[in-house]
Design goal:
With about 200 residues, this protein is of the alpha/beta class. The protein has one domain: Rossmann fold, CATH 3.40.50. The chain has 7 helices and 10 strands. The strands form 2 sheets. Strands 1-10-7-4-2-3 form a 6-stranded parallel sheet, sandwiched between helices. Strand 5 and strand 6 form a beta hairpin. It is globular, with a radius of gyration of 17 Å.
């Protein structure tokens, strides 16, 4: 059963099939998906589910139109995003020239509702130097339960290569007593965060 059905429930027509699939499905996997969404929404992030790559373009256009950003420069370092979605964007690699950052990520952290990025996405830019508005493209397969799971995955992914630096997370919240000592959010500022989440399993 895909993420969309887990999120919104199966239709009546699909209910019997859905029940059979849910018995076979890992409850741990289901919990991770739902936990991420719950925490992400709690942090006031804006979540947009995309069932296909065509929907990514449609939803990206909708975000730009809704916020009157169509004429603004968009900070983007990703070659993939530039080739796939850059035709209708005014792109820049200068962080001071834009109020919007369009990027991919390493992982989505379920128990924090946060988006993990590193130097592969940020290049040499510090998080506090990034624009206020973030548009993140991620896949459902990138959801992991915790920071430790994400760091383990990054270590495996870049095995034999220099490990990425500047590992940090976007967690659209204000600094509180509970999170002020969390090294993953040190020096971070509240961001207006849109997540385009592509179903890939």
């Amino acid at each position: 059963m895909n993420f969309f059905k887990r999120l919104f429930g199966a239709t009546t027509k699909d209910s019997t099939q859905g029940a059979l699939e849910s018995q076979q499905e890992s409850t741990d996997e289901l919990a991770i998906d739902m936990l991420f969404l719950q925490e992400f929404k709690k942090n006031k992030g804006k979540f947009i589910y995309c069932a296909s790559e065509d929907e990514i373009q449609t939803n990206l256009d909708a975000i730009l139109e809704e916020n009157s950003w169509r004429a603004d420069q968009v900070l983007c370092f990703s070659e993939y995003l530039t080739k796939a979605y850059g035709n209708d964007l005014i792109l820049t690699t200068n962080p001071t020239a834009s109020k919007i950052f369009f990027t991919e990520c390493e992982h989505l952290i379920a128990n924090q509702g946060s988006v993990l990025v590193c130097s592969r996405q940020l290049k040499s830019i510090k998080q506090e130097e990034l624009p206020e508005h973030l548009i993140i493209l991620a896949k459902t397969s990138q959801i992991v339960r915790s920071i430790s799971s994400a760091l383990k995955s990054i270590k495996q992914r870049y095995s034999g290569q220099p490990l990425p630096t500047k590992i940090t997370s976007f967690k659209n919240n204000h600094i509180t007593e509970e999170n002020q000592d969390d090294f993953m959010h040190y020096g971070s500022k509240t961001k207006n965060l849109y997540l385009l989440l592509l179903e890939d399993y």
